Amino acid sequence: MKIVFIGAGSIVFVKNLVGDCMLTPALSDAEFALLDIDEEKLNLVEKMLHTLNQNINGQRATIKAYKDQREALKDADFVITTIQVGGYDKVTEDFEIPLRFGLKQTFGDTLGIGGIFRGLRTIPVMLNIVRDMEELCPSAWLLNYTNPMAIVTGAVLKSSSIKTVGLCHSVQVCARELLDSLDMESSNISYRIAGINHQAWLLEIRQHGKDLYPRIRQLAAQKAVPHHDMVRFKIMEEFGYYVTESSLHTSEYVPYFIKNRYPQLLETYGIETDMYTDWGQSRIDFWNEMRQQLVQNTALSHERSKEFAAHIMNAIVTNTPYEISANVLNKNYITNLPNDACVEVPCLVNGQGITPCFVGDLPLQCAALNQTNINVHNLTIEAALTGKKSCLYLAAMLDPHTASELDIDDIHVMCDELLAANTDWIQLSDS
């Protein structure tokens, strides 16, 4: 079996995924093909995985770094993508240019003007990957972890025959983190989550069959403030349901919390919008620490992570059923969201592949809030696939946070400045 990691320089993430595979008997003797544009990081990750292979896997796996994408993809069974196109400099511009127009952001990786431009940079690179896959490993599964998840995964699903799902981390921990924050017992719970990536809804949560939501809402209303999750608690108070992604992320997907007219909201809800200024140094510090903890650690070991990837591959290979949440193209799974939307729903994985499950209608207000984000997803995808600048403008004008702060003329000028800063990656025209 051949498992390809594109963006293998994501050292902790790759350790988790490859380590999980090494602890899975059906995957432990695979070839792990590593690919990254940063050769130094790629070599460090390769060295780390050789150590891990020796320490926990009896050297059963084959670890190999590749310089050529087509060679790495040839005859692959699974391809995992975790890439950042344009690097730190482009991410910085995603924040600094909008800030000159008064537009503040927290992470800028999923929605908002930062998410739109990250998507426009990333989609062409992902399409280059899937075009090679169509030729070199047409039966392989693509497991995408790259943000903006819904935009990137949706673009691939709409333009390629490759079997693709998008995977995130928030669904696995959402319910238990909520209960832990309210000092509620989190064992023996069952739950149902559906919506869109980073804005999926905890629709049901039960313990021994008992509905926990009445008690959750009561304790949430009584929780002392301030606390770290105030945005999501406010969304739950108003919309009735808890949302999967963190408060800092959630704050920039809606028009309610980051507002120049009400600057006190940032302090009230504990929202930080200038974190990107520290990311450059933190990246350097992070890699210095990882060299010591992971690369130079001859006793390196691994405990299974919460990631879905190894479970998915094992379920497909061994025909052992496993349930996940994944991002797929909506085909009437969520009946009050459009069928061209990339949605996050429960899926059953087995020897037949990955099968999305029927959800039905979301609560009306939850579907309505999702739709405001879906508008941006689909117009960004349309801009990338057609090359039309007009679709970019529309995506930005319909973005909830951007539209709540800027007028149409400023949105046009801001988008043009960001396009000028991204000429190496984004090619859009007026036609």
Mean pLDDT over the full residue set: 96
- Main sheet summary: 6 strands, parallel
Beta percentage is 15-25%
Return the string of H and E elements.
EHEHEHEHHEHEHEEEHHEHHHHEEEHHHH
The percent range for helix content is 40-55%
| Count of alpha and pi helical runs | 17
Low-confidence stretches: none
Structural class from helices and strands?
alpha/beta
Termini distance? 46 Å
- Strand arrangement, major sheet: 3-2-1-4-5-6
Number of strands: 13
Rounded to the nearest angstrom, the radius of gyration is: 21 Å
Shape: globular
Describe this structure in words.
By secondary structure, this protein is α/β, with parallel strands linked by helices. It has 17 helices and 13 strands. The strands form three sheets. The chain has a six-stranded parallel β-sheet, sandwiched between helices. Strands 7, 8, 9 and 10 form a four-stranded antiparallel β-sheet that branches. Strand 5 (141-144), helix 6 (149-159) and strand 6 (163-166) form a beta-alpha-beta unit. The longest helix is centred in the first third of the chain and has 25 residues, at 112-136. It is globular. The mean pLDDT is 96.
Features:
globular, alpha/beta, single chain, 4-stranded antiparallel beta sheet, 17 helices, 431 residues
Compact summary:
By secondary structure, the chain is an alpha/beta fold.
Topology overview:
Elements: E1 2-6, H1 11-22, E2 31-35, H2 39-57, E3 62-66, H3 69-73, E4 78-81, H4 87-100, H5 112-136, E5 141-144, H6 149-159, E6 163-166, H7 170-181, E7 189-196, E8 199-207, E9 210-211, H8 213-222, H9 230-239, E10 242-243, H10 247-250, H11 264-268, H12 279-295, H13 309-318, E11 322-329, E12 342-350, E13 353-356, H14 364-386, H15 389-398, H16 400-405, H17 408-421
Parallel strand pairs: 1-2, 1-4, 2-3, 4-5, 5-6
Antiparallel strand pairs: 7-8, 8-9, 8-10, 11-12, 12-13
